[in-house]
Specification:
Elements: E1 2-10, H1 23-41, E2 45-53, H2 63-73, E3 79-82, H3 85-88, H4 92-105, E4 109-112, E5 117-118, H5 129-158, E6 171-173, E7 181-183, H6 185-199, H7 204-213, H8 219-224, H9 236-244, E8 252-254, E9 257-259, E10 266-268, E11 275-277, H10 287-296
Parallel strand pairs: 1-2, 1-3, 3-4
Antiparallel strand pairs: 4-5, 6-7, 8-11, 9-10
Helix pairs in contact: 6-10, 7-9
Length: 297
């Protein structure tokens, strides 16, 4: 049995490039290639799909990619098929490590359909100059687009535009403007209760215990309709995060985290780098109560 691993990947940087770049578009292309070239691959094949949705090509910590590479090292994959080099990696050095070291060591055939590359055509497992240059272009493109997206987001944050995909507990996005948040009353009532108890001198552990006894739904239960192992299980850390969040007194704080480098992890920035807009949206609690609770905490 000839084992073919097809690898699909899409990230935010690909969303404007149409259906061909989507996971379904990549899947159709690779399946059509296998059907057309099956004789040259093997009479009997097994197709194993690996897909990473929302991961940058310069990030090595992709769940599906890690599973694929694990099978490669166990020599349980005979061939890897991708739409183009950038699906596997946008980092030039990382792509070279896979193509020239890892895959040849474990006798894995590598095919990039749109690049017209098949490692069987290169006995020394070293791609031609045109292929290497193309890999470098993918790398440079990724860094360039990441810089542009980062600059655009920073400009929006400075202007006080809400850019997060999610909303804090107690708020929801306006149906008229996705960059505006408004109070979600049922959740906001829980937030007010938490601040009220904190203002009366209750600690976060006591507040969590009271919320459980009162059978008040947790943020997860509100948003997903799901509960933890125990229903209404409020954790003190959840209460703490709500009490420390300045969004509840109408402030928008953005820029608290930024990526160290393209594809890297988020790191916390210094408070002087934060972008803060007061009176940005409707308050759930007053500034006086918020400040009182901070002193008590």
């Amino acid at each position: 049995m000839y084992r073919i691993g097809i690898y699909l990947r899409i990230s935010k940087e690909d969303f404007n490039e149409g259906e061909s770049q989507s996971l379904s578009g990549q899947r159709k292309l690779l399946q059509a290639f296998i059907q057309k070239e099956q004789v040259s691959l093997s009479d009997k094949i097994q197709i194993i799909e690996f897909s990473d949705d929302g991961y940058s090509g310069v990030n090595e910590e992709r769940p599906a990619l890690k599973r694929l590479l694990s099978l490669v090292k166990e020599e349980k994959i005979d061939c890897i098929l991708v739409k183009d080099f950038s699906r596997l990696a946008r980092d030039y050095l990382l792509l070279g490590e896979y193509m020239e070291i890892l895959f040849p060591i474990h006798k894995v055939r590598f095919i990039s359909v749109n690049d017209g590359y098949d490692s069987q055509q290169y006995p020394e497992h070293i791609p031609g100059m045109d292929m290497q240059f193309r890999g470098l272009c993918y790398d440079l493109y990724s860094k360039d687009i990441s810089h542009k997206v980062k600059s655009a987001l920073r400009a929006k944050k400075k202007a006080g535009i809400y850019v997060s995909a999610n909303t804090p507990f107690g708020y929801e996005k306006s149906s008229y403007d996705r960059h505006t948040i408004k109070i979600k009353e049922e959740e906001a009532e829980v937030v007010r209760k938490i601040f009220q108890l904190a203002g009366e001198g209750y600690g976060v552990t006591e507040i969590a215990r009271k919320l459980r006894k009162m059978q008040i739904k947790t943020p997860k239960e509100f948003r997903e309709g799901k509960s933890n192992k125990k229903k209404y299980y409020w954790h003190p850390a959840t209460v703490w995060r709500i009490l420390k969040n300045r969004v509840y007194m109408g402030e928008l704080v953005q820029g608290k985290y930024e990526k160290e480098y393209v594809g890297g992890r988020n790191r916390k920035t210094l408070p002087k780098q934060w972008m803060i807009q007061k009176n940005h949206h409707e308050k759930i609690v007053t500034e006086e109560l918020f400040d009182k609770v901070q002193n008590l905490l």
